[in-house]
Amino acid sequence: MDFSIMGFDSPLLHTLQHMMDLPDDAEKTYNAPSRTYVRDAKAMAATPADIKEDPKSYVFIVDMPGLKSGDIKVQVEDDNVLLISGERKREEEKEGAKYVRMERRVGKFMRKFVLPENANTDAISAVCQDGVLTVNVEKLPPPEPKKPKTIEVKIA
């Protein structure tokens, strides 16, 4: 509410008006995403992946050009979340050389995948070959169907 429109123009009323407007600014700051969230969201968006399902496993395929196996981490967290992460580091600049254009992404990358209930988290393998990471998650065998239990009827 602007008190100057109503003919009230005093410093006290301007201060009160300013104090009444503060919660809007504070609310914007309070609801803003954290730096960690923004960093993780960018890292996840910049790491595309393909997922295939075959009769015995789930296969996650992620392009990792120029990375060594030591730069890549594959983990399972919370018993059903597959986490692929790592960091691509910038090459050390040689003296006298400078970049004219720099388009390859450097920095941290991460992807999280919620695994289905039938994924066997104890049977996961990962291979990085020719810049392509392939993570294989075996499926659990389907549960045996329960056989009906026969109950004998006695004559009383």
Helix content: 10-25%
How would you characterize the largest beta sheet? 4 strands, antiparallel
**Helical stretch tally:** 2
Structural class, from helix and strand content? alpha+beta
Choose one word for the global shape: flat
Would you report the number of β strands?
A: 7
Strand order of the largest sheet: 1-2-7-6
Arithmetic mean of pLDDT: 79
> Strand portion, in percent?
25-35%
Distance between the termini: 87 Å
Helix-strand sequence? HHEEEEEEE
Which stretches of 5+ consecutive residues score pLDDT under 50? none
Radius of gyration of CA atoms, rounded to a whole number: 29 Å
If you had to describe this structure to a student in words, what would you say it looks like?
This protein has 156 residues and is of the alpha+beta class. It has helices spanning 11-31, 35-45, and strands spanning 49-53, 57-63, 72-77, 81-88, 107-114, 119-129, 132-139. Strand 6 and strand 7 form a beta hairpin. 8% of the residues are buried.
